[in-house]
Amino acid sequence: MRARPLLADPDFLRLWLAGACGATARWLEMLAVGIFVFEVTGSPLLVAAMLMLRMLPLALFGAFSGEIASRFDRRRLLLGTMGSLTALSGALAALASLGWLEVWHVAVGAFLTGIAWAMDFPVRRTLLADVAGGARLGAAMSLDTVASSGTRMAGPLLGGGLYAAAGMDGAFLLMAVAQGFAVLILLGLPAPVRHASARAAGVVGALRTALSELRGLPTVQGILAVTVVFNVWCFPVVSMVPVLGADRLRLGPFEVGVLASMEGLGSLLGALGLAAFARHGHFRALFVLSVLLYLVVAVGFANATDALLAGMLLFVLGLSMAAFAAMQSTLTMLGAPEASRHRMMGLLSVFIGTGPIGFAHLGLLAAWLGAAPACTIIALEGLVALAVVAAKWPVLRRAGRPAVS
Fold it and tell me: DSSP string of 129-170?
């Protein structure tokens, strides 16, 4: 099985485990913050705004993060990022413990966390690709999705349970512990052997280079376009899970955590299946069909009035998320020359950063019409957008390994 030699590599294992620790903190924070903000304000718009602030740095700094990753020691960048997150979570835990935590503190924390998240694709995932090599790239990204998906299940359970038992101080404290473990794990990672050193062009020049290279990479263009569809019209739906759980399904914080964890369970099982069975010839079809399935199922989830049915539909959303997440990075790196990968991953961060548009759109609709109608409307809009992208980039519908132009 392809997973065994990768996980037997100590460098890959360190990066994989550090990613799992960081993802646990990420998903825990998303749910706990959503519950906290909705309880304090009663505003679906502000709940969506927290995730919008988390994703905004991807749009603002994503392109530059790829160039930064090419110029500096990625190990040190990763250590610095995780160390900063540990300190931030500890500070927020202290504010919550003292009873001083306000919504604006959480908002600032979300934005700073988003800056760190913007470094994940061009730094940690590129390091994973370097360790795995081209032949094992699909398996490496699928395994990374396994870690993210497993923590996507555990994070909401921990977040809901901790929020119910210990409030936001307990949630932030566990985040700090998870991020601190990531730092300890990464201390044993050796410095990368090679770095790009084209300093003369500058960051803006490097961005121009990336956009120029993108013109000759139709597969990557299509992947980035589908990424916009997912982040503007799909991903914002998850921000409404605390709202729909509390307001429509009448669930408490722990039950909302259980509900949200169903998406993580689906994502985990989907990622395990991808790691075991996915082949290069299936990658593009899996990528596009996963977004299609997500949008269709999101309509059903938004209108579910039974907690069991809502959980089953979230499970299917998780399966779709796993296929999208694994294939997104894999296809981007397979569709670009090795020397351009860090730049394409930086651009990928930028296109993921279009998410705040979707969160703002959903939040305003939810404030006007309610969470369920808002989720339904953006899912239907997403189906139209996906059809346009599939027509514009027919390369996404072709079977076979992505070709590098």
Answer: HHHH-GGGHHHHHHHHHHHHHHHHHHHHHHHHHHHHHHHHHH
Domain extent listing, the chain = 8-187+202-397
51: tokens are 């995730």
DSSP states of 95-110: HHHTT---HHHHHHHH
- The encoded tokens of residue 370 equal 């309610």
Tokens coding 248: 């429509």
CA-nearest of 188, 149, 136, 150 to 15 is 188
The pTM score is 0.72
Would you state the structure tokens that stand for residue 230, as one six-digit string?
């997912």
Indicate the CATH number for domain 8-187+202-397: 1.20.1250.20
Q: How far apart are CA 204 and CA 114, in angstroms?
A: 22
Kindly state the DSSP code that residue 249 receives in the 8-state scheme: S
pLDDT of residue 198: 44
Give the relative orientation of helices 341-352 and 202-214 as an angle to the nearest 10 degrees: 90
Element housing 230 (H / E): none
Tens digit of each residue's pLDDT (9 = 90 or more) over 195-224: 444 444 555 666 677 778 888 888 889 999
Q: Which of 394, 339, 336, 340 is nearest to 217 (CA)?
A: 336
Residues in the chain: 405
Nearest to 200 by CA among 71, 316, 318: 71
Residue 95 has pLDDT above 90, yes or no: yes
Residue whose C-alpha is closest to residue 324's, from 392, 266, 250, 385: 266
* Cα(155)–Cα(27) distance, integer angstroms: 5
Give the span between the Cα atoms of 272 and 289, in whole angstroms: 18
